[in-house]
Write a structure and sequence with these properties.
The structure holds two protein chains of two kinds.
Chain A (H helix, E strand, L loop, with lengths): L7 H15 L13 H10 L6 E3 L3 H9 L12 H4 L4 H7 E2 L10 E2 L2 E2 L1 E10 H6 L11 H15 L4 E3 L4 H8 L6 H8 L8 H15 L14 H11 L5 E5 L2 H8 L6 E4 L15 E3 L2 E4 L6 H11 L2 H11 L2 E2 L14 H4 L14 H15 L5 H14 L2
Chain B lengths: L4 H8 L7 H35 L17 H7 L2 H34 L4 H9 L6 H11 L6 H8 L13 H29 L3 H9 L4 H12 L1 H16 L3 H6 L11 H11 L3 H29 L1
Classes of the chains: A alpha+beta, B mainly alpha.
Chain lengths: ~400, ~300
């Protein structure tokens, strides 16, 4: 069962090839990203789990792992198969001991994609404001100055981010001051959200607000907030710069194939940053294998085949993703992905999942911050309270 | 020792033996009722009881174990500020649905009832919004109200009223009233149809008699139409109020509770707690609290309308 609408066509094509090569027929059910979690949950409750299914985020997957619906692939990830994954992909997939209560260490999913988070810039709009979008600004202050110039042209701001991505924005920018270990300690509830690094990390949004560069002066919220932002960037093209994941390239290919005048890059470093900034990232689309299924061996073989270089290349060509397979080189990637792909080695390694209550508090908190209803400290207070509440 | 007067009556009443035909008829009636009772039990009573039981358990939606945790889910809900603030928001929806929903539906019904031609057209046109799926309505209005590309703001710009252009759904000042207005638009057809049916049942003789007594427009409405519509008003009020308090789809599609939590409503909070946070126990506790409040409110409303009658 596949979650990704953007990858459905590539999967269908690969399944057809697999059938021709091996004679094994694989049926792909693609209920779509919105319906997928509920459908997967219903299947788990009725004991009718598919042989192979898309992974969700770690907090969403934990119940499935605990219920034994995902095979621990660690013993199988040796030799040739292991070579299909870059070390960072394996590191990001490995569940370390003690990070999730009641769950053994292991690797419960295999991924053909790596995602990084960063900025996407409409090259034409930036150029029309006299800015070279391919020359990244040296600091966040310089970036804000650029956005101010572009705002002057558009008259309605230059930057937008979905509220639901606030955690990724914060986790990326706070890395200017916090180490991965410090970030992980906060996510695990062992350190405070009120540390200076978090405060400075969140302050960037307040600075963007004060500079008047946020489009419509508000961050979209709601279930479809990121599609709204993507629509403004790719389809309507009234949003010059957005914060998004590399997976958005696939969205662009599916919804606005003619629009290719954009580049990607990371959030510029903070002038007073104490560390080299990293980015929020992780493994992207991938699969879990149901160990209680009827076709376990066949499912393992299919997933192994899916992650081989030839198939990874099909995903790159059709979807425009960053492959987890290191044998696909940077030269194979589309130019729009280049900026995101350059961030792969800067992905934070923070094994602890972000507490859902803290995330909810942050998502609504940043909206209030941009609307000047709350201060940075109040948002961090809310985060702290939410995290403690479900510790 | 005293005996209750009715006990004596009951004792002295001769036992009536029902005929086999009457007994067969009653048995037949129960047979017809059985499928409905079974459906009611399986799809209403059992889930209702299960929800109450679940509110004392812990469940992530996937695990097979559901340990009992006593009152901890209720303690969790008591400290959930978002849930309690969502109750305040839904009360606004309730008041808007109750007052404006009734007034608009009644006004439209009275107007349509008076026109001589085109009744069928207005009946269809006014009921039309209620025919669409709530998701379609949400999508439609999110396009209409989009800050830059939305039709409403473009229209305002085109007529020279660009000062009125607004980010309707993302400004805390306008988000809740905007969602409430969409809700009203979606639901007014239901009350309108009931009021129209009620108006057509008012005997013409009453209006004639009122005319003879010298009553004109407002007096006729106040002393004839309104009292005759009281039973309809009671049911429309109750259903509109409950509909407004249970609003979910419109809010989820339009704002998902944002900006911040300015449009959060209890049903959406319950949904998020269950399906996003995967805490079905506390979601069940919230639904028990909210459901209980709705039952109490419905009982109060029915009691008040009976007293008024």
């Amino acid at each position: 069962m596949n979650q990704s609408r953007g990858q459905a066509k590539a999967l269908d094509k690969l399944v057809e090839t697999y059938h021709k090569q091996t004679g094994v027929r694989v049926t792909v059910d693609s209920p779509g990203p919105t319906n997928f979690p509920a459908k997967l949950q219903a299947k788990s409750q009725s004991g009718d789990m598919p042989d192979v299914y898309s992974t969700l985020t770690l907090p969403e997957m934990i119940p499935y792992y605990k219920a034994g619906w995902a095979m621990n692939l660690q013993p199988k990830l040796t030799g040739d198969w292991k070579d299909n994954f870059s070390p960072i992909a394996l590191d990001l997939t490995t569940l370390k001991a003690g990070t999730v209560n009641g769950l053994d260490a292991g690797i419960y999913s295999a991924h053909w994609e790596i995602q990084t988070m960063g900025l996407m810039l409409n090259t034409k709009t930036f150029e029309s404001a006299g800015i070279d979008p391919k020359a990244p600004p040296a600091t966040t202050a310089a970036w804000i100055e650029q956005l101010k110039k572009v705002s002057g042209k558009t008259g309605n701001g230059a930057f937008l981010m979905a509220a639901s991505l606030a955690d990724r924005f914060l986790l990326s920018h706070a890395s200017n001051w916090l180490t991965d270990a410090e970030i992980d300690a906060t996510l695990a509830g062992k350190a405070s959200w009120k540390a200076d690094g978090w405060r400075k990390g969140l302050q960037l949004l307040a600075d963007l607000r004060d500079a008047g560069v946020i489009v419509n002066k508000a961050l979209p919220g709601g279930d479809g907030d990121n599609p709204t932002v993507e629509k403004g960037f790719f389809n309507v093209q009234d949003t010059p710069a957005i914060f998004d994941a590399s997976v958005a390239i696939g969205v662009a290919r599916a919804t606005a194939p003619d629009f290719t005048d954009y580049v990607s890059m990371g959030i510029p470093k903070a002038a007073d940053g104490m560390r080299k900034p990293r980015v929020y990232g992780g493994v992207g689309k991938g699969a879990c294998i149901n160990p209680k299924g009827k076709n376990v061996d066949a499912a393992v073989k299919f997933v192994q085949w899916l992650t081989e270089p030839e198939q990874a290349k099909v995903f790159v060509d059709m979807v425009g993703l960053i492959p987890a397979n290191p044998k696909v080189t940077a030269a194979d990637l589309p130019s729009q992905v280049a900026g995101f792909a350059s961030l792969v080695n800067a992905i934070e390694i923070t094994p602890s999942p972000l507490n859902t209550d803290a995330r909810t508090a942050l998502v609504s908190g940043v909206q209030s911050l941009v609307l000047k209803e709350k201060t940075v400290d109040q948002v961090l207070d809310d985060l702290e309270t939410a995290q403690k509440r479900t510790k | 020792m005293t005996t209750h007067p009715l006990e004596g009556v009951a004792a002295s009443r001769p036992r009536v033996r029902r005929s086999p035909i009457a007994r067969r008829r009653e048995l037949m009636a129960w047979c017809f009722l059985l499928p409905a009772i079974a459906l009611l039990a399986v799809f209403t009573l059992v889930p209702f009881v299960q929800a109450i039981v679940l509110s004392f358990q812990q469940w992530d939606g996937v695990s097979t174990s559901t340990p009992f945790v006593g009152l901890s889910n209720y303690r969790f809900v008591l400290h959930d500020t978002v849930f309690w603030s969502s109750l305040r928001n839904v009360l606004i929806f309730g008041v808007v649905g109750f007052v404006l929903g009734n007034a608009i539906s009644l006004g439209m019904a009275v107007a349509v009832n008076r026109v001589r031609r085109g009744k069928a057209f207005f009946r269809t046109a006014f009921y039309l919004p209620g025919v669409f799926s709530v998701v379609v309505i949400g999508m439609m209005f999110s396009w209409l109200l989009a800050p830059n590309a939305g039709i409403l703001n473009r229209l305002l710009g085109a007529v020279g009223a660009s000062g009125l252009q607004h980010n309707w759904l993302e400004d805390p000042g306008t988000a809740l009233p905007t969602v409430a207005a969409v809700f009203l638009w979606y639901h007014w057809g239901f009350g309108f149809i009931l009021y129209l049916a009620g108006l057509q049942d008012v005997p013409v003789e009453l209006y004639e008699a009122a005319s003879l007594d010298g009553a004109r427009g407002w007096a006729k409405f106040r002393y004839v139409t309104w009292p005759e519509l009281l039973p309809v008003t009671a049911i429309v009020s109750l259903l509109t109020l409950l509909g407004a308090l249970q609003v979910f789809g419109t809010v989820q599609v339009l704002t998902n509770g944002g900006p911040g939590n300015h449009t959060m409503v209890p049903t959406l909070r319950i949904y998020q707690e269950a399906f996003t946070n995967q805490r079905f126990g506390s979601a069940a506790a919230m639904s028990v609290i909210f459901g209980g409040a709705l039952v109490l409110l419905a009982m109060l409303q029915l009691w008040l309308s009976r007293r008024r009658k």
